[in-house]
Amino acid sequence: MEEIYRHIEPTVINIRPGKNSDGLQGTITQQLAAEHGFVDLDVTELTSAEMARNTLIGQEFVKLVKADKNIPANMIVRMLNRIIYSG
């Protein structure tokens, strides 16, 4: 089974909108990551990191934030796709 897992991308992923480290949901998230190989992605943290690293999508995020606009879902998905499939 491990041989199959090495060729399947991406690993099962848990995507969440923000901090999730406390309470029952945080415990469940930690267990999924530790016991079942889930990758836990915090969209808020990733968005901030993209802006700090000044990536192309991060630059787009900064422009939107400075213009006091929300970051559209399709841009978040574009960022997540790049991260998820980067290995």
> Unreliable stretches, pLDDT < 50, 5 or more residues?
none
| Overall pLDDT | 80
Give the tally of β-strands: 2
Order of helices and strands: HEHEHHH
Our count of helices gives 5
Distance between the termini: 19 Å
**Count of separate structural domains:** 1
- Classify the helix fraction into a percent range: 55-70%
Anisotropy-based shape: elongated
Largest sheet: 2 strands, parallel
Percent in strands: 5-15%
Instruction: Tell me the radius of gyration.
Output: 15 Å
Strand order, sheet with most strands:
1-2
Which structural class matches the secondary elements?
A: mainly alpha
Tell me what you see in this structure:
By secondary structure, this protein is mainly alpha-helical. The protein has one domain (2-84). It is built from 5 helices and 2 strands; from the N terminus they run H-E-H-E-H-H-H. The chain has a two-stranded parallel sheet with strand order 1-2. It is elongated. The two termini are 19 Å apart. The model has no long low-confidence stretch (mean pLDDT 80).
Highlighted features:
two-stranded parallel sheet; 87 residues; 62% helix; mainly alpha
Summarize the structure.
The protein has helices at 2-7, 23-36, 43-53, 56-66, 73-84; strands at 13-16, 39-42. With 87 residues, the protein is mainly α.
